[in-house]
Amino acid sequence: MDTPNRTQKKVALLVMAAGIGSRYGGIKQIDGFGPNGETIMDYSLFDAVRAGFTKIVFIVRDEILETVKEKFLPKLQGKVEVEFVVQSIDKLIPAQYKNAERTKPWGTGHALLCAKDVISEPFIAINADDFYGKDAFESVANYFKNDTTGAHAMVGFTLSKVLSEHGSVSRGVGEADKDGYLQSVVERTTIVKENGKIISKEKDADRELDPNAPTSMNFWGFHPEVFKLASTMFEDFLKEHHQNLKSEFYIPLIVNELIHRGIGKVKVLGGGNIWFGVTYKEDKEEVSARIKSLIDKGDYPQKLW
């Protein structure tokens, strides 16, 4: 495959593949969906390489580290720099906040922080089990190539197009100002479709959401300065939440703090034209069918690598 360097400078892709995926009932990050058993991650890596990204950083659990290395290193060698980082429950957790009973990872913000020692360039953070399409990768690559503002970025997806027919989903629902900069993003953890409306199930009451809201599918573009704020915030988060075994430190928490403190802006980018993913086992057949249709259209070769 061609590997044009369209970015003219280094840009890294951070692939968050350490989640457990309890609702899927298997390790969806390395499950096969393409015609030759390709994972969803394969298509993201292919898109990133052809958009000109220069480094891939995998964030994985220790249990799947060797499998991920075996699957992806041979495909990427000679094309990009590759790093593997393990996100363990105790990584970056001070001794006083460790809890032997905790089994759940600390979330996407923690995954981001686990990579701070191997990333010194602008980078994009994505989920391993979401299919974003080539336009999203090209959009962010072009943004970092041409941007002079130093703003961070989020590829915005339309809320109504990123739900599941098989149950509730968690989404970062955003609001943007007239200049296209994010004003806030709120992690809504239980979003469902009910009676033609999009509803967020919350402790106090159900909340109806705007179907056209720009939504984060965890396709973030950051400058490395974000790590400093994220580190400070994670320390504060642990002080308050370390006894809650299910608490998670989400990337949107970091983004909101950047915006509200006025220490960074986040540009909402186009390119969110395709999204599909696997939350439930029932999603697998549809994902495979959609990948096939993109291959039939000529967006991807029958054999990626």
From TrEMBL:
<keyword id="KW-0548">Nucleotidyltransferase</keyword>
<feature type="domain" description="Nucleotidyl transferase">
    <location>
        <begin position="37"/>
        <end position="187"/>
    </location>
</feature>
<protein>
    <submittedName>
        <fullName>NDP-sugar synthase</fullName>
    </submittedName>
</protein>
<dbReference type="InterPro" id="IPR029044">
    <property type="entry name" value="Nucleotide-diphossugar_trans"/>
</dbReference>
<keyword id="KW-0808">Transferase</keyword>
<dbReference type="InterPro" id="IPR005835">
    <property type="entry name" value="NTP_transferase_dom"/>
</dbReference>
<dbReference type="InterPro" id="IPR050065">
    <property type="entry name" value="GlmU-like"/>
</dbReference>
<dbReference type="Pfam" id="PF00483">
    <property type="entry name" value="NTP_transferase"/>
</dbReference>
